[in-house]
Design goal:
This protein has about 120 residues and is an all-beta fold. It contains no helices and 11 strands.
Length: about 120
């Protein structure tokens, strides 16, 4: 996960669900994540809690989310963090576990400065 040139999270494996990459909590650089009071309900995954991403004083409100208590159907993403709002994924994954792969990162392109 990169935003404004700063690595926010990095891992060899994510859990992909509905097209979203969920990063394990230990892969996050927590100093860039702030808990948000925002919550979102998914009928089959449960209640999501949000994080605001902040780099160099620039916030991206509610850009990341996770499920602290997912439903049984979504238990594999418990506490794993996904994102949106301009955040993209870079890196490669190989289906052959014997091959090395580059780390997977979430990437957020720099925002234009608003005046």
């Amino acid at each position: 996960m990169i935003w404004n040139g700063v690595v926010l999270a990095e891992t060899r494996r994510t859990k992909v669900l509905e097209g979203n990459h969920y990063f394990p909590p230990e892969s996050l650089h927590s100093e860039y994540f702030t808990n948000s009071p925002t919550k979102s309900l998914c009928p089959w995954k449960g209640m999501a809690r949000c994080h605001t991403l902040t780099v160099d004083g620039v916030p991206n409100p509610n850009a990341a989310w996770y499920y602290p208590h997912p439903t049984t159907l979504a238990r594999r993403i418990k506490n794993h963090v996904a994102s949106w709002n301009g955040v993209t994924i870079e890196g490669t994954r190989h289906s052959d576990s014997r091959r090395r792969c580059e780390p997977v990162r979430m990437v957020r392109p720099p925002r234009a400065i608003r005046r």
